[in-house]
Amino acid sequence: MKRRSIIFKAPFEIEIAEEAVPVVGPAEILIETRFSAISHGTEMLVYRGLFPDDMAVDETLPGLQRPLNYPLKYGYAAIGEVIEVGSEVNQDLIGRMVYGLHPHESCFIAAVGEILPVPRDIDLLDALFLANMETVVNFLMDGCPVIGEKVVVFGQGVVGLLTAALLARFPLAALLTLDNFKLRREASRRVGAHLALDPAQPDSLETAIQWLEPDASEGSADLVYELSGNPGALNPAIAVTGFNGRIVIGSWYGRKQTALELGGRFHRKRIRLISSQVSSVTPALSARWSKQRRLDTAWDMVRRIRPARFITHKMPFSRAREAFALIDNDPASTIQVVLDYGRA
User: Fold this and answer.
1) 61 near 101, Cβ under 8 Å?
2) Tens digit of pLDDT for each residue in 2-33?
3) Which CATH entry fits the domain spanning 2-123+307-340: 3.10.20.520, 3.90.180.10, 1.10.287.1080, 1.25.40.10?
4) Is the pTM value of this prediction over 0.90?
């Protein structure tokens, strides 16, 4: 049996390779892929060659524990049907739709404990957003939004939009978002942001500060999320944050760097910078929250938010090169691009 796999060969260079499928082991299953989602953040850093070369692709995922260098397979949002199981696996899994944190391939083998059955009441395209939704649930656990707070979110790609959508369900005093692209700002307003600004506009920072607190000369936000993928957004994030405010940094910047302006109000305002990454649960909650509880919450949020509405392009797997080039060259027209493997 053969499969087709996306291989990242070099910056801006991918190929679709055909290779033999390994034999299914006793505790493994074979999944025929229906859809996979391209990460517009982390995965595009791999596509552009902006990743650090001194770490594993992902130290927490069995399918990605290898050096982060070319050539490599990458991706972590695949939905497919179980078509074969090993001798030690329950035969009832055959025919089930499952989610795998796995690179883009027409079929793949995984240990039974590495896949997640898709709940039958969740649409497959909605289920593609599970990893992003779990990341967002983790952001809220790290940021701890409080009733009546003023919250700002930098970046309204998929992760930023999901974050705004969950924050909009809190009784906040204000929810302000910023993104360079009109399509995403419009989506942000639809999910519940009170105001969505273009950070490229010269007066956007002043507008944000005064909208949060009329006639204010400095920031007053209680909680800020930096999810734009642009480390240059950290200085504006600091500027809009109020005394003892929190800035949750959910972006992964790879090799991108910036100069932080920490010599101004940063220290006097006692601003806290918080790193957030889904590979662990915040220690403050780990006594009661396991990864399984967080995952169950993410599935529930997928049910409530129905994130498939953020898909702007669904393209055949054979056009993967075009899909990646589209995200790279025309981000203004894309929110989420999905690869369709053409299964009935």
Assistant:
1) yes
2) 999 999 999 999 999 999 999 999 999 999 99
3) 3.90.180.10
4) yes
